[in-house]
Design a protein that fits this description.
The protein is an all-alpha fold. It folds into two domains: about 1-50, Homeodomain-like (Arc Repressor Mutant, subunit A), CATH 1.10.10.60; about 60-200, Orthogonal Bundle (Tetracycline Repressor, domain 2), CATH 1.10.357.10. Helix content is about 80%, strand content about 0%. It contains eleven helices and no strands. The protein starts with 6 loop residues before the first helix and ends with a helix.
Length: about 200
C-alpha cells in the first residue's frame, strides 16, 4: 500500500527541486508553491520565509553530508586510504546535493552555533584522522605538515568546484554533464594530488 506524502514532505521535495535549479537567490516562494501543488498561503503556514524553507531542505542534508565523510575517516585503516575515501564520499554527496556547500558556508557565517552541534558529532572521525596522521608521520611516510592544514586543503579541493560552479559555467561554458564528468575525475585526481604533495 502506497503512503501519500504529507503536505510538508511535498513542500520540501518541491523546494529541493526549485532551489537546485535556481539557487537560493533565484528561487521564489510562488514557484515552490506551484511545484508542490498548493497555494502560497498554505506554503507560508508551514514555512514563514524562504530562508526557513531553505534550512528545512538542506540542514538535514548537511548533517548527513558531514556525518558520512567523518564516518569514512573513522573507519579508515591508514592515512592515504582515509584521504581517498574522504574525497570520494564528499564529492559523491555533493553531486547529489550541489547547493550544500553554499548552505553550509552561509550558515556558518550567519550563525555558527546553528551547525556546531552536528559538526561536533564528527569528533570521533577527526580523532581517528589525527591518529592515522601521526602514525604516518612517525613512520616517515609524510612530510612535516600541520594535520589541520592538510584537512583544510582536502576540503577546499573538494568544495571549491561546487562553490565556484557559476564561474566555471561562465568561463568554460561547462554544462551539467561536463561538470559531473569533471567531479568524477576529481575523485581520483584530488587524492593523488594531495598524497603526492605530502609523501616524504
Amino acid at each position: 500500500m502506497t503512503v501519500e506524502p504529507t503536505t510538508e514532505e511535498r513542500i520540501l521535495a518541491a523546494a529541493r527541486n526549485v532551489f537546485t535549479q535556481k539557487g537560493m537567490a533565484g528561487a521564489r516562494m510562488q514557484e515552490v508553491a506551484d511545484e508542490a501543488g498548493i497555494n502560497k498561503a498554505l506554503l507560508h503556514y508551514y514555512f514563514r520565509s524562504k530562508q526557513q524553507l531553505f534550512e528545512g531542505v538542506f540542514k538535514g542534508s548537511a548533517e548527513r553530508q558531514l556525518g558520512c565523510v567523518w564516518k569514512v575517516l573513522e573507519e579508515a585503516t591508514d592515512l592515504f586510504s582515509g584521504i581517498e575515501g574522504f574525497v570520494a564520499t564528499y564529492l559523491e554527496r555533493m553531486l547529489e546535493e550541489p547547493l550544500l556547500p553554499q548552505f553550509i558556508i552561509a550558515e556558518l557565517n550567519r550563525d555558527p552555533k546553528n551547525l556546531l552541534d552536528f559538526i561536533d558529532r564528527g569528533k570521533v572521525g577527526r580523532a581517528h584522522y589525527l591518529k592515522l596522521f601521526e602514525e604516518a608521520r612517525a613512520a616517515g611516510m609524510i612530510i612535516d605538515i600541520d594535520p589541520r592544514e592538510l584537512l583544510v586543503n582536502i576540503m577546499a579541493l573538494c568544495a571549491h568546484p561546487f562553490v565556484a560552479r557559476p564561474m566555471l559555467t561562465h568561463i568554460h561554458g561547462m554544462n551539467d554533464d561536463a561538470f559531473r564528468r569533471m567531479i568524477h575525475k576529481r575523485r581520483k585526481s584530488v587524492p593523488e594530488f594531495i598524497i603526492r604533495s605530502i609523501r616524504s
